[in-house]
Specification:
Spore Coat Polysaccharide Biosynthesis Protein SpsA, Chain A, 2 domains
Length: about 450
Amino acid sequence: MKKEGLPSLFIETFAWYYRQLVEGVTGLIAELEIEPVTDLPDMEALPLRLCQIGEEALARTAVIKLNGGLGTSMGLEHAKSLLPVKNGYTFLDIIARQAILRRVPLILMNSFATRQDSLAALKAYPELCGNIPLDFLQHKAPKIAQADLSPISWPANPELEWCPPGHGDIYTALVTSGTLEKLVAAGYEYAFVSNSDNLGAVIDPLLLGYFVEQGFPFMMEVADRTEMDRKGGHLARLENGRLVLRESAQCPPEDKHHFQNIHRHRYFNTNNLWLHLPTLQQVMRERNYRLGLPMIRNSKTVDPRDPTSPPVYQLETAMGSAIAVFERAAAVRVPRTRFAPVKKTDDLLAVRSDAYVLTDDLHIEPSPEQQHQPVVITLDDRYYKFANDLDVRFPYGPPSLRHCTSLSIEGDFCFGQNVVCRGKVTLVNQTNEQVKIADGMVLEGEYQYG
């Protein structure tokens, strides 16, 4: 790790987690150790007077975006945030324009793989340049061989010997990069942190005002779990009354039925967080710059594309798990519109279509026809898994989906211009030839080919 130029503070932090692994710590959180969270303050019920408090606090607020992902699941080899997503704008274009509109500094937590391309893209926005650096780097950690708990050696591709340590690394990276110190010294008190691929995560004066008035050190935005969220992490409460985040990798197998019970554990973490920066700086100092977040022991193979390659552990932490560290840390329920991640091409097609609109204040929101029931899209991974697959099969852009409730595509199709989908649309192509959808065609119901 020293040869790789990693800072000593991160090496010491990794060593602390590695000792836990050797000692048999699993990082699991049993159902008996927690209680469900039954009620939370609701953003939609907050008094509008808080907006003024939030507006006044914007001058002391920074926006931090987690920007370390390459988007490999969609076949990308560059930062996922550089993918065109709406009206020709990339994620990063929209994020930058939002920051300029609100006059807040934008800071990216980049990985070694995303830094160069992302900073090059931000040169188009000189207004962002100020006294705060535009980015800081996430660290990297060695993968650990499950066979003997040694750092894995993989001469075929040495880069695969390393992995990100989870977004919980943000707290250490803010310190080692000097970014936290610079923010506090420049008078910034608050930070809004979120994933760069979550188009719903915009700085909101109402939430900022609530955070400021309550004087919280840390606040997590959570949303109602649905059947789609059964396998994702949830919020719970410890016996000491503090809130805790339990990820799927931290749930014992015997408690999976409780974990997936969305009526018992009602809220999931959107990964939209609000931080009081002076408190974070103080707590980091008090704890020798190690928050002690719960370890997540992720079991993988050294080559994620080769299931027969040697099994490894990736030692990670979750950014949201810091909710259990701070006294008076809080959570607030937010509407689902604040959680709109683009994880698959299904999501990307929906957002690129007219089912979503880009507002004047640079929010991406469901179109008026989609407000109550956003379109559900299911694409055949054989033909639509990667972003360039969409470009090839939708050469004129997505069909109109404003009046569509669901679009399911099985098999190979190529869409012409001005295609409209209405209601529930199902396309099935069981032939060996690509089916072309004619220009101007209105699709409604089920279509079988072959």
